[in-house]
Amino acid sequence: MEKIFNHFLQGLFLLYFVSASSAMTTTNITTDQDALLALRAHITSQDPHQILLKNWSVSSPVCQWVGVTCGSRHHRVTALDLSNMSLSGIIPPRLGNMSFLVSLNLSRNNFHGELPHEFARLRRLRVLDLDVNNLSGEFPEWFGSFHQLRLLSLNNNSFTGFISTSLANVSTLEKLSLSFNYYIHGNIPIEIFNISSLELIFLQGNSLSGSVPDDMCRHLQRLKLIDLSWNKLNGQILSSIYNCSRLQVLHLSANYFTGFIPRGIGTLKALEQLYLSGNSLEGEIPKEMGNLTMLKTFAVSSNSITDESFHSFSKPTFRQSSVKDG
Questions:
Q1: CATH class of this structure's domain 139-323
Q2: What are the average pLDDT values for consecutive 10-residue runs of the chain, which has 326 residues?
Q3: What are the angstrom distances between the C-alpha of 279 and each of 43, 203, 251, 265?
Q4: Could you give the CA distance from residue 103 to residue 112 in angstroms, rounded to a whole number?
Q5: How far are the Cα atoms of 211, 242, 251, 296 from residue 271, in angstroms, in the given order?
Q6: What is the DSSP letter of 131?
Q7: 184 DSSP assignment
Q8: DSSP 3-state assignment of 159?
Q9: Which stretches within the chain are classed as H helix?
Q10: What is the CA 121 to chain-centroid distance, rounded?
């Protein structure tokens, strides 16, 4: 009798466990569905073909909705891509409940308002692309919560304030793109230059000021491109630029850099594009730059570079490079 009772209890426990697991799965996918429906409800202007209005329906599985990708293991939403759909509205806090989200792309729409701080719960996020919207508010401090983030792109928005030092916590970041947020100002946080995984840095068209630390390249061994043009940066071009040995594009035009072009640039064998126009540089073009066999574009106009130095090169590679405005 005791054995029968024990088997009964085990069966009851197993039934409870299966039911609880099933309920949890239902709750999870329901959470994703509710978050997406909240986003749809906050869109004030649908796309011309009303894709979301017609397709995002509770009568069809979430994983079959337009722009939605689900993982095969947990059957949760892992990616949301609504880019270039002419959507207007705000991003609701409930979107932060999509805890399995790995990639979020809402670029090239007209979303406005501030990003909800509930986004900080998206700990699995690797890609966050919000380019070309009208998002505003202070640059979020909680971006540092995205410990797996590889791409952060906020170009062409209206964010304000300082770039948060918390970004230094994102040790996996490969591309940082914050261009054309005119009211982002202040110094570039030194901590960002400690993210050794960075390959691409786009910070042009803001109101950044101060100098670039001379040891910027010490930890950026993978850096291929850095664009700091059209800001208010000053000081000298870092003399230790040679440590960025994989650099292909260096864009520093339209700032307030002074001093000389560092000779170390001549050691950047991979360099293809160099833009220095619109600063207050002086002196000569270093003869070491004749070693840049990959250089295709060299822009140095609107400085005080001596004319004689332009004619002192005999390297064919330099003559093929275009000296133009950048």
A1: alpha beta
A2: 49 43 56 96 76 88 96 93 94 97 97 96 97 97 96 98 96 98 96 96 98 93 97 95 96 98 96 98 94 96 81 45 45
A3: 44, 17, 12, 17
A4: 20
A5: 22, 11, 11, 8
A6: -
A7: B
A8: strand
A9: 2-41, 51-55, 316-320
A10: 18
Strand partners, 70: 77
Q: How far apart are CA 237 and CA 252, in angstroms?
A: 9
Per the CB < 8 A criterion, the answer to whether 92 and 39 are in contact is yes
**90 φψ region: left (φ > 0), alpha (ψ -120 to 50), beta (else):** beta
> Residue 172, SS3?
coil
Q: How many residues does the chain have?
A: 326
Domain residue ranges in the chain: 139-323
Tokens read off for 208: 């950044």
Please list, in sequence order, all residues whose beta carbon lies within 8 angstroms of the beta carbon of residue 9, skipping any fewer than 6 positions away.
none
Place of tokens 């401090």: 141
Rounded to whole angstroms, the Cα distance separating 227 from 19 reads 55
Dist. CA 315–CA 178, nearest whole Å: 37
CA separation for the pair 216, 208 (Å, rounded): 16
CA 235 – CA 124 distance, rounded (Å): 39
Residue with the two structure tokens 């799965």: 25
Rounded CA separation 322/296 (Å): 7
What is the amino acid identity at position 154?
Answer: L
pLDDT value of position 310: 59
Cβ atoms of 98 and 122 within 8 Å: the answer is yes
Question: In 3D, which of 196, 192, 182, 198 has the Cα closest to residue 212?
Answer: 192
